[in-house]
Specification:
heterodimer; A: 138 residues; Cytidine Deaminase, domain 2; six-stranded mixed sheet; two-stranded parallel sheet; 9 strands; B: 96 residues; five-stranded mixed sheet
Chain lengths: 138, 96
């Protein structure tokens, strides 16, 4: 299960809407082992594409090093799908490389409806998990 | 002196949990071969028959080696190498 504050979900959805029709991507960092996402980091989609995303390698290095220095890890890795359902594609699965991360997916195909789902992707296997959205401090 | 190589979480099962290991070599390819001798399997996770795997980013002194010389990039004692899994994906070729 992913437990995440509403304010963080709102930021992820806002980022996905802002970058639509391109895919948006980013990270929510949290203390190692806490399984609690706390620090929102919007990343550049180096592909600037409606069907593909890739973190810019230099930005990723800076962000990963800052997490390392702060004893943080990527608790949530998010991206958007802009025309399809919020479910991991084959591409998403083949690239998934953080077994401890929650892979969050937002679909922006419907401007009126929020579709926010979360998955574990380990060794090529996808497991959808419950998302529990809590208020700050809750 | 040696070359320090920072290892990402997903590969630490090959380094007995170590976050950083040391190696030697004149090029990135030689360095990876040297590391693989002590941490078998590491090379296979970084390199395929076409060169560096697209799933991984390798940095030499904070520069992406793709913009340097790939596996032929020259390295020397005192350099720092960082390995990170690339974060990528997207709806392309999706099943759904």
């Amino acid at each position: 299960m992913l437990t995440i504050e509403r304010a963080l979900v709102d930021k992820i959805v806002a980022h996905a809407r802002a970058d639509h029709p391109d895919e948006a991507c980013g990270v929510v960092a949290g203390s190692i082992g806490s399984d609690t996402p706390s620090r929102f980091i919007a990343m550049v989609n180096a592909e600037r594409s409606p069907t593909f995303y890739r973190f810019d390698s230099m930005e990723q290095l800076r962000v990963w090093r800052a997490m390392d220095d702060a004893d943080e890890e990527p608790v949530v890795i998010y991206h958007s799908h802009t025309a399809t359902e919020a479910y991991p594609s084959r591409t998403d699965i083949s690239y998934a490389s953080e077994p401890n991360a929650h892979y969050a997916l937002v679909s922006t195909r419907d401007p009126e409806k929020i579709e926010f789902r979360s998955y574990r992707i380990v060794d090529g296997r996808v497991t959808e998990e419950e998302v529990r959205i809590v208020e700050a401090g809750g | 002196m040696a070359i320090e190589v920072r290892i990402p979480t997903i590969l630490r099962n090959l380094t007995d949990g170590a976050k950083a290991v040391e190696g030697k070599g004149g090029t990135l390819e030689e360095l990876i071969a040297d590391l693989d001798a002590r941490h078998p399997g590491l090379r296979d996770r970084l390199v395929d028959d076409k060169g560096l795997r697209k799933f991984v980013n390798v940095y030499l002194n904070d520069e992406d080696v793709r913009f340097l010389g790939g596996l032929d990039t020259e390295v020397s004692d005192g350099d720092n190498v960082t390995i990170l899994p690339a974060v990528a994906g997207g709806a392309a070729h999706g099943l759904r």
